[in-house]
User: Fold Release factor glutamine methyltransferase from Parasphingorhabdus cellanae.
Amino acid sequence: MAAALRQAAQALETVSETPRLDAELLMAHLLGISRQDLLLDLPKLDVPDGFSALLERRKAHEPVAHIVGEREFWSLPFQVSADVLIPRPDSEILIETAVEIGTDHPPTHILDLGTGSGALLLAALSEFPEARGVGMDASPAALAMAHNNADSLGLSDRARFLLQDWTMADWTQSLGGLFDLILANPPYVSTKAELSREVSEFEPHKALFAGAQGMDDYHVIIPALDALLAGDGIALIEIGFDQAGQVTILAEKQGYAVECKQDLGGNDRLLVLRRDPV
Ligand code: GLN
Assistant:
């Protein structure tokens, strides 16, 4: 087994920045055990049939999360597929910030715009046991996945999912009320951007691309906050590393005070919006 993992890691070096981890995750998946158990029991395990087929898929740039059908976010397991954006560690800054701000005044009504796998909404609900939340998405397949995730995390009694498209007129009305915490990781990639093959060939373009400047969805979401955000509520909006300036200007024009936060890699990743009291 040790040799098989070593060889697999070597074979993945040209396609992955984390070849050893990828090999371990694929092997653990095939054996139906956790990565921890794989590493603990390494000498006792035989290499199962089918490992090379999984390696071939990874060598063709398919993300590990798609091959194993799962990705961890905020230390919770999320089922994923090609219908949803794979939750990124960078987005955990939204949850970290929600927890920081919510410690004194925990939110009770949470909205996740473009919920996809449900990762942001469900991670937030796991932190705020008194809160209920709505995850909105324009993709029925994504909502099915979000439903599954709510069920398997034991959060379905507090999570509701709504099929709705924010390019439609009056879409905010179907949300029926105000929220004290709004989360959003909207599409924000420029259609001119060059993405890795993992992303461009396997992840849903609808969840990624937002026009020539990557700004199209912010121009819809930020003005709509007016109808959705409670007076003392906060909105946590994910941004691309080079979008803080433009999105801040847009939000300030709409009357919000804006604070920018960085992800683990030190890139601008999050804007915290509050209604400006002045
Ligand atoms: N951060 C994502 C990427 O890897 C983009 C996510 C998004 O558009 N919301 O490209």
